[in-house]
């Protein structure tokens, strides 16, 4: 089904190129060290700043961006700084369940599981989502692993396995839980809660769905059309490759991060070029604060992971070609997913006006297919002036969307403590 040697060479070529530019990057770093030393004869001159800026851009061009840390050490709760300790509660082959524990026994808040997308970027892309919900919830997040680091012996991982992971995490965290799905996981989260409610498990009080393709037929975007207009064998032969020998996941079929990154960048190439020109200008004039903000963003944006081939291909087919969930044809382990059986869990659907990844109406569709949830337990929030990233991160998310999430979840939770 997957190429064994042909496309696997693509990954090998990329690795070869990375190794070959190491001496060049070392040379750049050596020059940077000199300019930062007391022996720099042109220190604090226009030439010095121009050289430093140029070398910085070269260094960023050549480096391999590693997975960032969440790095959340404290949060304000009711105006008080509370220390945060990050702990891993469950270690799974393809995902870890992380808890952001507040080191204050007096703070007791309702639980929120954030289901991060497995769509190229690490879960740390949702750092802002975590930070902005921490003042109001006891927050947990799914931290999906880079498939290149997972040995073939661990077996396959597809969309059905993703759904079963979500079910396991929900049951582990127990009752009176709010579950937030950001983008791609809106589909498996709806599926997971459908299957749970069918077996009479009512531990999920709230389902918060943000900017995801619940029904990709609504307001089709460029992303949707890319998937719809190509046969499955195109994806199998053109974007699936095997992990080379210098990784733990040697020979695992994957949709590699470098191909995904090219796709991300190509969608808005002019914008990304413009942002890097701005970064260069900030470095030249010595605007360190603005430069650091842009560097932090791109350190995150350019850090990508490999996705298991089975997961990627099943997602393409089920979500973007067959529209299996809204058409009532999605199955997990042979069992039909029935969203109409959801009754207990309240549903909040959130969309952004400028979202060019998940079009308007794709997330709202959940309110239609989960037709037996009482109307008073559903809400649709349309946020003006935000794109796909802004619907779960940034100032408008913090100021406009988080209060909606907080009020909705607090209203419909069975949580009994003072909140």
What value does the Rg take, in angstroms?
23 Å
Shape: globular
Work out the helicity level. 40-55%
Percentage of residues in DSSP E strands: 15-25%
Biggest sheet details: 9 strands, mixed
Structural class: alpha/beta
Uncertain spans: none
Q: What order do the helices and strands follow?
A: HHHEEEEHEHEHEHHEEHHHEHEEEHEH
Oligomeric form of this entry? single chain
Strand order of the largest sheet: 1-2-3-5-4-6-7-13-14
What's the total count of β strands? 14
Tell me the number of helical segments per DSSP (H or I, 4 or more residues long): 14
Distance between the termini: 52 Å
Mean pLDDT, rounded to whole units?
A: 89
Short description:
The chain is of the alpha/beta class.
What are the SSEs and their pairings?
Blueprint: H1 8-20, H2 22-36, H3 46-62, E1 74-77, E2 80-91, E3 95-102, E4 111-115, H4 127-133, E5 138-144, H5 159-173, E6 177-182, H6 186-198, E7 204-210, H7 222-228, H8 232-238, E8 241-242, E9 253-255, H9 257-267, H10 269-285, H11 288-301, E10 307-308, H12 309-321, E11 331-332, E12 335-336, E13 346-352, H13 365-369, E14 378-383, H14 395-412
Parallel strand pairs: 4-5, 4-6, 6-7, 7-13, 13-14
Antiparallel strand pairs: 1-2, 2-3, 3-5, 8-9, 9-10, 11-12
């Amino acid at each position: 089904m997957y190429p064994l040697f042909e496309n696997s060479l693509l990954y090998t070529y990329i690795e070869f190129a990375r190794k070959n530019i190491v001496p060049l990057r070392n040379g750049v770093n050596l020059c940077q060290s000199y300019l930062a030393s007391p022996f720099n004869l042109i220190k604090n001159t226009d030439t010095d700043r121009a050289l430093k800026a140029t070398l910085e851009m070269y260094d960023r061009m050549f480096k391999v961006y590693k997975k960032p840390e969440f790095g959340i050490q404290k949060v304000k709760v009711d105006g008080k700084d509370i220390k945060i300790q990050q702990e891993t509660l469950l270690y799974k082959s393809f995902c870890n369940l992380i808890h952001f524990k507040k080191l204050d026994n007096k703070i007791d808040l309702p639980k929120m599981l954030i289901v991060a997308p497995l769509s190229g970027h690490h879960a740390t892309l949702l750092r802002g989502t975590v930070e902005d919900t921490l003042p109001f919830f006891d927050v947990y997040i799914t931290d999906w692993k880079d498939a290149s680091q997972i040995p073939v012996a661990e077996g396959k991982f597809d969309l059905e396995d993703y759904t079963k992971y979500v079910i396991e995490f929900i049951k582990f965290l127990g009752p009176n839980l709010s579950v937030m799905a950001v983008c791609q996981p809106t589909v498996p989260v709806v599926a997971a809660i459908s299957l749970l409610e069918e077996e009479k498990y009512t531990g999920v009080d709230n389902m918060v769905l943000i900017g995801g393709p619940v029904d990709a037929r609504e307001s089709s975007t460029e992303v949707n059309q890319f998937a719809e207009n190509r046969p499955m064998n195109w994806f199998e032969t053109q974007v699936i490759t095997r992990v080379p020998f210098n990784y733990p996941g040697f020979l695992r079929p994957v949709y590699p991060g470098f191909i995904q990154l090219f796709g991300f960048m190509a969608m808005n190439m002019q914008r990304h070029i413009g942002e890097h020109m701005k970064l260069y200008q900030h470095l030249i004039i010595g605007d360190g604060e603005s430069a650091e903000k842009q560097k932090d963003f791109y350190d995150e944006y350019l850090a990508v992971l490999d996705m298991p081939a089975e997961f990627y291909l099943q997602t393409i087919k089920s979500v973007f070609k067959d529209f299996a969930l809204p058409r009532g044809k999605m199955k997990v382990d042979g069992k039909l997913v029935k969203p109409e059986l959801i009754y207990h869990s309240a549903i909040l659907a959130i969309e952004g006006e400028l979202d060019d990844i998940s079009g308007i109406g794709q997330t709202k569709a959940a309110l239609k297919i989960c037709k037996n949830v009482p109307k008073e337990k559903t809400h649709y929030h349309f946020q003006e002036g935000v794109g796909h990233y802004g619907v779960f991160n940034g100032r408008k998310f913090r100021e406009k969307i988080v209060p909606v999430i907080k009020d909705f979840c607090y209203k419909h939770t069975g949580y009994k403590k003072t909140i």
